[in-house]
What we know:
The two termini are about 15 Å apart. The chain is mainly α. Helix 3 runs antiparallel to helix 4 and helix 5 (about 75-90) packs antiparallel against helix 6 (about 95-115). It has helices at about 1-5, 10, 20-45, 50-70, 75-90, 95-115.
Amino acid sequence: MIDDILDWREALARFESRGAYERRLRELLPVANDSVTTLFALIGRGQALPEEAREKAVQVVHEVREHAAEVGARRLAARAMELELAIRGGADLAQPYGLFSSAVPDTLCTISGFLG
């Protein structure tokens, strides 16, 4: 189950040391956590977003996606990708946002457990 949420073995190979990997994991914690609130404020009830809100939402979710992918947080990276594509495409955002926002606490708990 942990590899589905955090594939640390695969991700660790991309870092110079375990310490560098753990630092990057710690950097993801506030970024991912804050993204849920920021995106909720921007997305609201999931309707189409004005251009400025859409750009900000894409920026926030893209940052989470890249960071999550880098550290091997597969599920979060996948949910962020789905949400980013929905935002860019002007789709209804209720379901992709719900999936993203539920992946965040699972990922943060798994990272916290990994870090000890």
